[in-house]
Design a protein that fits this description.
The chain is of the alpha/beta class. It has three domains: 114 residues, no CATH class; 207 residues, Rossmann fold, CATH 3.40.50; 106 residues, no CATH class. Helices cover 40% and strands 17% of the residues. The strands form five sheets. Strands 17, 18, 19, 20, 21 and 22 form a six-stranded mixed beta sheet that branches. Strands 6-5-4-7-11 form a five-stranded mixed beta sheet. It has a five-stranded parallel beta sheet with strand order 13-14-15-12-16. Strand 14, helix 11 and strand 15 form a beta-alpha-beta unit. Helix 20 packs across helix 21. The longest helix is centred in the last third of the chain and has 25 residues. The N terminus is likely disordered. It comes from Leclercia barmai.
Length: 589
Amino acid sequence: MSDVKKKNELRLPEGFVEENGRLYFCHEDDDKKKLVSSHLLEPVAKACNRARNGNWQIILKCTNHSGTEVDITISLKKVKRNADSVISHLAGKGVFVQDSKLFLLFLEKSCELDLPLCRVAIRPGFQPEELVFQFGPYPIFVAEREGIQDVIPNEDMAINDAIAVSGPLEQWQEHIAQKVCGMAPKLSILVGLSSSLLPLLGESGAIFHLCGDSSTGKTAAIQAGASVNGLAAEPGSGSPTQIQRWNSTSNGLELLMVMNNGTTLCLDELGSFTGKFFAETLYDIVSGATKSRMDGETLGMARQSTWVQNVLSTGELTIVDRIRQEKSPVMDGMLHRALSIPVTAEDSRGVNEDIDAARQRIGDIKTSLLTCHGSAGYEFICCLTGLTDGEGRYFDWKATSDFLKADLGVMLDEMKRRLHAGLITLNSVECRALQRFAILYLAGALASKWQILPWEKEEIADVVYIAFNRWLQNYRFDAGRKQNVLITVQNFIAVSRSKFIDVKMPCFASRKTDTAGYILNDGSYLILPDTLEKLGMNWGLSAKKLARLIDEEGYLTRPEGDRLTTRRTIQKVNVTGYCLSAEFATAGF
């Protein structure tokens, strides 16, 4: 072993020699040696992309001027573009290059050496169509299948150091997975495991949002979910954690998605989002790609970063309610991507467990999280990338994908049968949401099979089914919202008739300051914009959006087709308002 190591240490490109710990170049036509570096630079590996036609880098080892061994990774593209900046960077490490031209020649000739080959990771998570996963600072791959010795991150790749492994898997199982109780933390753990499955299944990510009043165990649940992949200290405690706050800009959240690609992003306290355009920000998150931007150097389009992962979120409001606070429309596409699951304090307790016992148990779990995290996600991805057939041959990307898609179909059919037994039928949005919950079921079933989760498959199925039903009830309650809004307007007209002035009255002498509108000659109601605005505020709707709901039911009179409002001259006074037909007051919805 020592001879091989010594041989590797002495492997230098042709024409370069070592003398007294320095690197020299000696041309065949010139006996005079030229100093390249004050230190011996040893090429130990080279790295590139899978096709070997890009991202070429040379990995060097060197002992700097203070006697410290330094690992150096040099991008050939970068050194070719600006050798001086690379040499300056090396000087910052205590490594001094004396001749830039000879240094560049040294790197070029090092590429010709038969060095161990490494892969360059260009992003966190799975590399494009390849079973090589960058899990924070840890690469996960099967060297035998990939034909590589190691994986190194590209120079411009952001590493999330909060994705970290501490303690063996058995410790996480004993102190976290076996101690959590109830639907909320167990579902959070399944969400934490699920993100690495998405690209293999060809699925986009979703936001699983635990919503409920304070002191319902939401933060403890998100900590359990975060512990799957790394540091899970309580947000705001001052300790390092991968749990972030919703209080960020759209660009900031995009960066978090990019840095967490392939692993679940945890966002706490939806109510802390104080920026504008929440709905737009939400669409940016689930879009899976950064906005188009100009490259400052080339003045062309900058390369877009992409991501695919699930988000585990908490807050007192549902996501739909938060969208409506800014009076933005809620599209069907968002309803199956942003899944709000109501939780209560009982969802983090064991059967017949009192409050004090639950508080003590959760406190013990939080203490364990400080030294016990990340192993479950790491082992899950190791198993996922190391699947084999009956003869022990490793699956490639397509075989792994086909295997997972078949299993997902089984899980989905099982959940559908359970819903059918309960006489529950689903619409298209609900079916799409069910598929997203089935992915959590698949993640849990695989983790149980691979002995990562100490739970039985039946228990996992129950957790996912309960969570889906919570979402379904919340979604269907909200789906009846239009009916409730229209009935509210109806009730207002019925109980506030005294606030409507009948135009048949001879004059406006009796007009009051709280006038809501007018009753016209044909019995229709001309409601003033301020009145309709106040009615809509309770539902997060502007007057115009509330008027559109009424118009969709055919009860809004629109003399001018391009306008929702109606202008009338009533006893020589010009009045603008929303005209509701007389039939609206007695209509059934």
